[in-house]
Amino acid sequence: MTETYEMTETYEVIVIGGGAAGLSAALVLGRSRRRTLVVDAGEPRNAPAAHMQGFLTRDGMPPAEFLAIGREEIERYGVELVRDRVVEVAEGFAVTLASGRVLRARRLVVATGLKDELPEVPGVAERFGKDVLHCPYCHGWEVRDQAFGVLATSALSVHQALMVSQWSKDVTFFLHEVAEADLADDDLRRLAAAGVEVVPGEVAELVVTDDRLTAVRLKDGTAHAREVVFTAPRAVPRSGLLERLGAELAETPFGAYPVVDATGQTSVPGVWAAGNAVGFGEQVINAAAGGYRAGAAINGDLLMADLDTAAGV
To answer: Is residue 188 a contact partner of residue 173, using CB atoms and an 8 Å limit?
Structure first.
């Protein structure tokens, strides 16, 4: 049922996205005594993962637990959180939610992240976050010294195959739909130096036995015993709101992301972005730091704006 809100609720800051970046920005703003609302659609990028790594003092923590603690922390400072989705942002930062609620903000933080589109190979989506992985810094230690496969999604996957060789000396690079002729000679030499076996041919499926990945089967019927597969999903930035706000975007090999300054401020006055909303490679710890910077910058921006108004500057 859609509720009708006759009066527009006003906040100093609305944070769109309740992941590490959004919650971190909200924490700083709440502690700065700013009336802040977090709108969380509940679609964290790392939801398939059982744990997150590399975050000092939080190494190995389940992502869901991390977010739950973050929500508790922002609540201590009066920050509100609503489970909803922003469907539109109009002039003057009038924010419309899917529920029909209409809000207004003086400043916005866009922390909507991105969506991972996986290769359409049977078994990949089902095993993603278990024994089909993307980031060696996130999971490499946990699967170290096992038999790795790397499923190419483009010629750029050479970099991934080279990187994961740091965690295992048994790495097979499956070219899948990438032609060997598309690989640079220097890359082929690097792969050979790293001891990575290059296997041409399209992959048909991942073989799973007793809920464990056991092999990669090619379309020609040959199977290669593997215990872990790394692959690079296609990153789809959730940048629709930023585009509609008129933010300048820059094309990268991983999609179009907003142009931001060191604090995350976009080209649109009053709008900041943080986390995977600004780049493909933002890990949880980086996203949290980006949210912190954005929150501190916004508080300072609001303070100076109010002082200038009071002083007639």
So the answer is: no
CA atoms within a 13 Å half-sphere pointing along the CA-CB vector of 288: 13
pLDDT for 3 beyond 60: no
Tokens of 123: 């078994």
Reported as a single tens digit per residue, the pLDDT across 93-149 is 999 999 999 999 999 999 999 999 999 999 999 999 999 999 999 999 999 999 999
Is 9-116+234-311 a domain of CATH 3.40.50.2000? Answer: no
| The Cα angle at residue 73 between residues 68 and 75, in degrees rounded to 5 | 100
pTM assigned to the model: 0.93
User: DSSP assignment of 71-112, as one string?
Assistant: HHHHHHTT-EEEE--EEEEETTTEEEETTS-EEEEEEEEE--
What gap in Å lies between CA 279 and CA 43, rounded to an integer?
Answer: 17
Instruction: Return the CATH number of the domain spanning residue range 119-229.
Output: 3.50.50.60
What does the domain layout of the chain look like in residue ranges? 9-116+234-311, 119-229
- Shared fold status for 9-116+234-311 and 119-229: yes
The rounded distance, in Å, linking the Cα atoms of 162 and 13 is 43
Rounded Cα distance between 47 and 67, Å, is 11
pLDDT at 179 over 50: yes
Give the pLDDT score at 254.
85
Residue 77 Cα distances to 21, 107, 108, 185, 202, angstroms: 17, 18, 19, 57, 54
